[in-house]
User: What shape does this take?
Amino acid sequence: MLVRHEPTTFHPLAPAHMPLRALRSKGSPLLYRMPGSALVLLVCAVALLLTLGLSASFAWRDRAAAIQHAHDTAGNASLLVAEHAARLVETSDLILKQAVQFAGPADTPLPTDRAAWERLAALARGTPYLVAVTLIDSRGDATLTTRRFPTPPMNVADRDYFQAQAAGGGLHISALDRSRYGNEPLILLSRPLAAAPGRFRGVALVAVSPRYIRDIYKSFDFDYARSITLRRADGTVLLHETQGPDATDSAAAEAAGEPEISALRRVDSVPLTAEVSIPVSSVMERWHGQLWTYISYALAALAAVSVIGGLALQRTRRERQAENALQHAYDTLEERVRQRTAELERTNAQLETVVTDKEVLLKEVQHRVKNNLQVICSLLRLQAARIDEPARRAFDESLRRIQCMSLMQELLYRSDQPARIDFADYLRQLCDGLVRSGNPTGARLTVNAPQPWSLDVDQATPLALIASELVSNALLHAFPPGHPGTVTVELRPEGAEGMRMTVRDDGAGLPPDQTGPQTPADEKRRNGLGLVLVRALAQQAGAAITVEHGPDGGPGTRFVVAVPTLSKAQTKAA
Assistant: This one.
């Protein structure tokens, strides 16, 4: 049996054993073709750039976080200042309303006696941020003030709060004012006194000390320099407080016009706005303190990369020296392997030519054998036409066996593998020919071989003859004339690699004495050549044959041919 040999390509050396210099010249990737020192320098440069890039990225992220923190701080502080201002104005306005009630009804003169002064002073003493509570008549003259008694001469007819109340209005908050009794600027809240319709009786005035408010603002815990401003709705500044951490004044940065982070918020139910501003320079100063931490880490990483790179360069130099020594040995070995490879390739080409010639020859032999067998079949048919009936039956059996082998040669000739055939396809074609040529009773033949089964010719030949004998015997002898039945042929896998061929009929069956053990003489006398030949062929194929009379309690006979794997079958046959 011929076996096709696939062409073999010999390589001088496997890539895993090639020196670095040789690999660099064989179309390897760019990084692998680079010298070791250049590769080490490239890796060090990438590591340095990555370290600097990451440090810069983290530092820039912290800068953005610091600015965002300053925005949040300014927003929270402006909310707190606005809330405090609302409560301050609300409390001051409450005292102001009590002073308006203290001035009496619209048709009474304003109080000026000491008892009234003491009651008014007691009203102001309960609120620490109030400097004074003053009653002013319609001409602008102060009639009673908690500052001192008796009230000194003071006319405020030219002040904006007096003119605003004379024009008619409610609560009025004035700009900063220098007190007539000192240099401290004050925040003034005023309301008109009760008067008859269309008349102006005077003004009740409350003076609030900004120093008290500044002391409260100074207690706010800020991480940055900051400024706090209270403004009226028209933009007039009522209070402006600047301070930095650790009592550092931020007025210089503000005066220099540096950019600031500001948060503006309206005071509830009062025409005031609270603004908190943080200089960007103060935020950057804190960020610069954190920046040195990143610089320290970056310098340490750069130093480590430099040391590792130096060690890697030294190792690369030693590897280059070893590579040069290996290259010389490799060049010599490569030349010797190249010569040996050329010899092997020539030998392999010769073997391929021989194998091809043998395959062509085998195909030609198979074709000629098939043709010769067909000639023999034609001669037997001509001879059978001239002899009597008993002898003609023997001729027909011999003719059937020769046709069986001719079909085998034809399938071998068509197969891509000259020494193997698909036995399932062969079985279907064999049964089709038998039922058309030798079926006197008109029995129905069913073949069930769903899976292909490749066999070499040495094992396929006896199995083909067994199938031919069993199927033709069932078609000729299993059914009485006029009572056609069914013959079933199955080819099923058995075990891991074996197959089982079953030939069953539902006819009259074998005589009882033919199912038991028999001697060769008994078999020849009772069974004729067919069953004797089947048992001999089964032994040749390494198969086990079982004969069952009336299988499964039904009529007919079943022949089971169990074929193991090819290796087991050949061992058993040997």
Notes: The two ends are 17 Å apart (CA to CA). The first strand starts at residue 130 and ends at 137. Residues 1-18, 246-253, 521-527, 567-574 have pLDDT under 50 and may be disordered. The longest helix spans residues 280-384.
